[in-house]
Amino acid sequence: MNYYDILKINKNASPQEIKTSYKKLIKRYHPDLYPGNKIKAETITRNLNEAYEILSDPEKKRIYDLSLEEQINENNKQYNSDNSVYDSQKNFNNETSFADFSNDTFENKIKKNIHNYVEKKTEKLLLHSKLKLFLYILFFSIFVFILTLVDYINYHYYIQEKQKIVNQIEENIINENNRTYYNKTFDNNYYFYKK
């Protein structure tokens, strides 16, 4: 199943041509509007949607084109190598041709490539999410550390200031006691000499 054939466009079609062809065909084969077999219309519509989804996205289209070239190269190698292609074709029943087999394999390759592409994008997003989470935790840890450090410094400053005040009070008390003692001594001596 070639998506270009489904949309009836060539490989070099512009995005506008892809869109125009898709709209034209989807209107024509829509199951509610198609006059013929409804099951056939549903199958064609499904194929049109799948083809448009791939070819309208530039990245998916690029992957598809690479797979298409790879498939063509593989088919050419198989055809040119020897007649084993024809021998293997004999093993299929009358309804299944080699073209059907190669298209099925090709379809699977496209799906695998798209799956791999989506998986890589998902891994990138997951990695970004993990990195963001790590950075948030790191910044939060640094913030908590800074708060704790500031609190620790304030506590020690408070203790030092308190100790200074206590020392000053003790010094004042000692000075006051000394003054009182000297005053008493002086008064006693003065009184003694006076007698």
Strand-helix topology:
Layout: H1 3-7, H2 15-29, H3 38-56, H4 58-81, H5 84-90, H6 98-194
Helix pairs in contact: 2-3, 3-4, 4-6
Reading the helices and strands in chain order gives HHHHHH
- Give the CATH architecture of the domain at 3-138: Orthogonal Bundle
Distance separating the two termini: 136 Å
Average pLDDT taken over every residue = 76
What structural class do the secondary elements suggest?
mainly alpha
Radius of gyration: 45 Å
Instruction: Count helical runs.
Output: 6
Low-confidence stretches: 85-103
How would you sum up the major sheet? none
Can you identify the CATH superfamily of the domain at 3-138? Answer: DnaJ domain
Strand % is under 5%
User: Quick one: overall form?
Assistant: rod-shaped
CATH class term of the domain at 3-138: Mainly Alpha
Total beta strand runs: 0
CATH domain topology of the domain at 3-138: Helix Hairpins
Q: How much helical structure, as a percent, in the residues?
A: over 70%
Characterize the structure shown:
This protein has a domain at 3-138: DnaJ domain (Helix Hairpins, Orthogonal Bundle). 6% of the residues are buried. The longest helix is centred in the C-terminal third of the chain and has 97 residues, at 98-194. Mean pLDDT is 76; it is low at 85-103. It has 195 residues and is mainly alpha-helical. It has helices at residues 3-7, 15-29, 38-56, 58-81, 84-90, 98-194. Helix 2 packs antiparallel against helix 3 (38-56) and helix 3 (38-56) crosses helix 4. The protein contains six helices and no strands. Helix content is 86%, strand content 0%. The radius of gyration is 45 Å and the shape is rod-shaped. It starts with a helix and ends with a helix.
